[in-house]
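User: Fold this one for me? It's Exosome complex component Rrp41.
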Amino acid sequence: MGGRETDVVLLDENGIRSDGRKVNETRKVTIKVGVLKNADGSAYIEFGGNKILAGVFGPRDVHPKHMSNPDTGILRVRYHMEPFSVSERKNPAPSRREIEISKVLKEALEPAVILEKFPRTAIDVYLEVLQADGGTRCAALDAASVALADAGIPMRDMVCSCAAGKAADALILDVNNEEDQAGQADMPIGYMPNLGKITLLQLDGVLTTDEFKKCIELGLEGCKQVYEIQKNALREKYFSSGDNN
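Assistant: Here's what I get for Exosome complex component Rrp41.
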């Protein structure tokens, strides 16, 4: 989180944010399924200014074999930001932040995927951030869930994700890049609505106990909205277009 000093008015006197949204409004979310021919499952998401591509491969043999688990499959997640995804060119080598987010996303997806059906195999999820605009881990998690479903991987539920936070002393839904940099708190949440389980919860910033509870409630409402968009994207591929694959 950045400091509070900023030239951007994060919230005006009418409670409207810098990008024209109300405090409880998400950015526009668009998801397209089955965009990569060579992947077993894939999805492309635009979440505000974020543009992220997800590709799923597997279940497939693990190499080297000693890395495999005889009792269950393993999930491997690689989150990567393209050098051109941010305004100041990023080094193409994996950063500590990308390695950390890869681990976080893996742990957020593992409760959803029924890995015990695929012992000694691996399911690989590749996430390429083409354009970043705050909240990339949430958008990447949303795309990864849809790509796993597209690959036909058995899942207990899809994970939907959205962040809540605090800026200009107000609790807000779906923190954008400006609010992330100059706001007071950012809380990414991952959620499985059918099971009522949170699989991702992080907090960067400071909230009171009451704000923390309200922030979770607000974030879960955003997650549920994204969940409907995820389901509709899958329906559009599998039910609306007949034999379109």
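One thing worth pointing out: Strands lie at 29-33, 41-47, 50-61, 74-81, 121-131, 160-167, 170-173, 185-192, 197-201, 204-205.
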